[in-house]
Amino acid sequence: MTWKDLRLRLRALLFQRRVEDELDEELRFHIEMETRKNVQRGMPPAEAGRKVGVDFGGFPQVKEACREMRGLRLIETTLQDLRYAFSGFRRTPGFALTVIGTIALGLGLNTTLFTIFNAYVLQPLSVNDPYRLYQFTWANRAQEGHRFSWGEFRDFERQNPAFSEVVAFNRVSFARVEGHLMLGQMVTGNYFEMLGVTAMRGRTLLPADATVPGSAPVAVLSFDAWTNKFGSDPNILEKQIPIRGHNLQIVGVAQAGFRGLSEVPLDYWVPVTLAPLLEQDTSLFGPRQPERLTLVGRLRPDLTPRQAQTTLTAWAQRHTESLPDAAHATHAILRSRATVVPLEPAVVAAAVPVFVAFGMVLLIACANVANMMLARAMARQREIGIRLAMGAGRARLIRQLLTESVALAVPAAVAGFAISSESIRWGQWLVFNTMPASFREFLTMMPLQPDARVFCFMLAAAVLSAVLFGIAPAIQATRSSVMQAARGEFTTDFRPARLRSALVVLQVSVSVLLLICATVLIRINQRMQQLEVGLQPRGVVVMDLQERFRERVMQHLSAAAGIQQIAAAGKVPFEGYLPRVPVVAGEDSGQVPAGYLYASPEYFEVFQLPILRGRNFTRDEALSGAAVAIVSQATAQRLWPGRDAVGRELRILPNPQQRRSLADPRAGPPAFASAQVIGVARDAVNGWVGEGPDSTCVYFPTAPTRAGNALFVRVRGDAAAAVRRLDAMFTAATPGAVDQLHTMEDVLGAQIYPFRAMYWISAALGGLALLLTISGIYGVLSYVVTQRTKEIGIRVALGARPGAVAALVLRQSMRFAFAGAIIGGTAAIGLLRLVASQVDMKLLGSLDWLAVGTGMALVSASSAAAAWLPSRRAAGIEPVSTLRCD
Amino acid sequence: MALRSRLDLLQGTLDLLILRALQTEPMHGWAISERIQQISQDVLQVNQGSLYPALHRLEHQGWIDAEWGVSELGRRARFYKLNKAGRKQLELETNQWARLSAAIGRVLDLA
User: Fold this and answer.
1) Cβ burial, residue A16 (10 Å; 0-12/13-18/19+)
2) How many CA atoms lie within 13 A of A186 on its CB side?
3) Comparing C-alpha atoms, which of A855, A873, A740 is closest to residue A810?
4) Is A25's CB within 8 Å of B76's CB?
């Protein structure tokens, strides 16, 4: 672009009026000269002028072509279109507001979802060069991943084939500090250095902090923990925090924004060398070398991830050569740790259905608006026809109509943004307030702030929806030909009916689909609520404690008021699966993998789980861990169908699948090879709630004094109050002794909660989709009635009864509903089949025809309801007045 | 007038002809179309609908300048004048045209 060009453009923009006049004068001069020439040649003046007009080829078109040359057309016409659009909106504010509101709702919902996705999957961690960070592990033949033992980590660090530096850290662990739940991690000394994270107060952990096991007990807090849990205490560096009953000196606060490399934001970090202190039972540095470290390294600058993968695969294979066959590494696994959740195919696969469900609501909103725009465009046919006749290009008109769409989408995006941030706030509040009370503090979320990516998403979604709801009406509306427009015929070639019907059917299908999914979830939720768990959770408190305090905790508990009974079990019911072991019932049958649970005799009393036949464990059996077993009813049925299980012998086979890291003495299968069945207990849910009552469960005896057991306490009165009382007592008497303290009702509630949340979200989406669909059907039908007023008038004049006329409209609505219900229903059935084939969950049940039927019926009924008013209006049409109009 | 007796202008040649017409003196649009028609002995007919867009385009490209003057009949008219950049462009395009027509001529002779 030359300087001159720019000057001319500016002049055209600033002195538009003058430039236009000049152009007009220039062309007029030409025509005058040409006419004069023709007259001089002897043509009659009228003929001469006509000929010039024909040669010239349309005065307005030439002017338009000259304007195009100015290169400002785009800006100029866009401004013009915008002015035009806004004056149109001022005339019909209801229309503009409805469109903006509808689209804003769809955009807001989707932005909320994207904000969450962004915070976890897209936002890079606030560490130095996050995109070079990779987690390394290897898979064996059974496709099991691997965690590292301390020795393995040291070996890898020494040989280190692919990283410039590696760090290791333990699983996230909980600690109760001053009534707060804190999440922390044990990390190697170079953790902060390698990540490039600095301290905003004091210092970070240094390699010197983690050289030998049993080093100085120090901890670094996260910025968020310091501000939220310690009130930004300026003297924090003089404080100690009691973690697992050990006082750790706080040496620093990490820089703001750093929350560790885990899915949950962390509150503190301690040197890995504190493991013997904090986890006395099976220490990381002990001879058993437990595999529990995760490795993250910074990729060497000269390697691509693919090269590193090759190198590491070779290393892992060499490293596992001497191990048994099953433990041989097949390949290395490198996962990016640039974001909280790595952007991997599996993550994308999980996110896609959710995005599709939310996207569908936006799609319905767009379809609704497209229909409204279509109706509006149709009302403007005369105007559009005239403009076409005046020489406006079709492309130009389409652009103008699209500009209108964008002019609606931009305010919708702004409103959607407000809706999104409100809904995030509201959603967090809602989740926080509907969670079972004692699990609230486990709810730690990444901060959900919109950033540049969210804005870009919003913008792209807004423009996309503008095109979605604008393009079809624009193309349809400009289809009338100049000839027809000139004759005043505006309807012959203008047939948006099919498009409109397609849009409505699409809406109906999508809301049927969403509603069916919501109904399925409601029913799962219902089954959950009514689930016969077999255990009485009311009045029971569960606690997890530090082994070395077990005796003291037991003493305090038996001395405390309001305690009725103390029981113990190897696992807390409702959460997590039961471990399994192959068993054989006597001599004549094959082996069955059976779930098992260590339970003290009081377990059956505390949870009011009746023993139907035989007897409970005795105290002696419990204390000695005798070779006796109680089986559940279902287990007895399965192993000894039709016979009495009591008194029979249950053989226990060594578990071939038992992995080294799981071979924990307290959770592992019993040491004895056979046990005598002494009782049959009623069926109950000792495993995960989602599985329903245990298909098999064998109870082996244990006692509250045995290591590794969780304690269950039946209290008098309100369990929640008892939890508070006990928490206060333990915090005062033995700080750090009790890790977790919950009512069993909360434990059950927390397990059911995700299903409830899922159901609420899908019900809200389905409801919203239904509302939009109803308003869409209503809009289309009232439009059709208005359009067919004359025809209906004639029908009435010819003797059609009002009922027949109303039926006409209702029939149209039902056609939409049925087509949509069939399409949506088919899609839902396909989807449910797909989910059922992927997810192994008993409560999902078989294909839920009731849910499918409910969804379809609900939408059909709504469609009929939406058609009610338009059909009444149609029935009330007066033939005399309608035939007179126009 | 028979259709074949006049040639439609090749895409892009109109610019060259306008520049050439303006080489001697500033002219208004109508005079330019007359001049081209005259010199080509009525073979080349400038489509008047494309003349003005072309003039505006050349002005934007900075090869011709426009100013309002008085026509031979005493009417106000917009006169176009070739400037320095325009002369260079004319030279360039003339050379290109000569090479092109020579090349086409050679091909036609041989073929």
Assistant:
1) middle
2) 25
3) A873
4) yes
Q: Which residues 43-102 of A have a C-beta within 8 angstroms of B? A: 55-58, 61-62, 65-66, 68-71
* B contacts of A3 (beta carbons < 8 Å): 62
A696-728 residue pLDDT tens: 999 999 988 888 788 999 999 888 888 888 888
Q: State how far residue A22 is from chain B, nearest Cα, in angstroms.
A: 9
What ipTM does the predicted assembly reach?
0.83
Structure tokens at A877: 């049409």
**Total CB pairs under 8 A between chain A and B:** 65
Hey, which residues 366-405 in chain A have their CB within 8 Å of chain B? none
State whether A56 and B48 contact (CB < 8 Å): yes
CB-nearest to A69 from B48, B53, B62 is B53
Query: Which is higher by pLDDT, A839 or B25?
Result: B25
Question: From CA A74, how far away is CA A315, in angstroms rounded?
Answer: 61
For residues A658 and A507, is the Cβ–Cβ distance under 8 A? no
Provide the pLDDT for residue B51. Answer: 84
pLDDT of the residue at B111: 63
Model confidence at A660: pLDDT above 50: no
Q: Which pLDDT tens digit goes with each residue over B20-34? A: 889 888 988 888 888
Assign residue B45 a region: left if phi > 0, alpha if psi is -120 to 50, beta otherwise? Answer: beta
Q: Three-state DSSP class for B9? A: coil
Give the residues across from A79 on adjacent strands. none
| pLDDT, averaged across chain B | 81
State the DSSP code for A237.
Answer: G
For B66, nearest residue in chain A (alpha carbons): A8
Interface test with A, best of B48, B55, B64, B76 (most A CBs within 10 A): B48
pLDDT at A795: 84
CB proximity A27 to B under 8 Å: yes
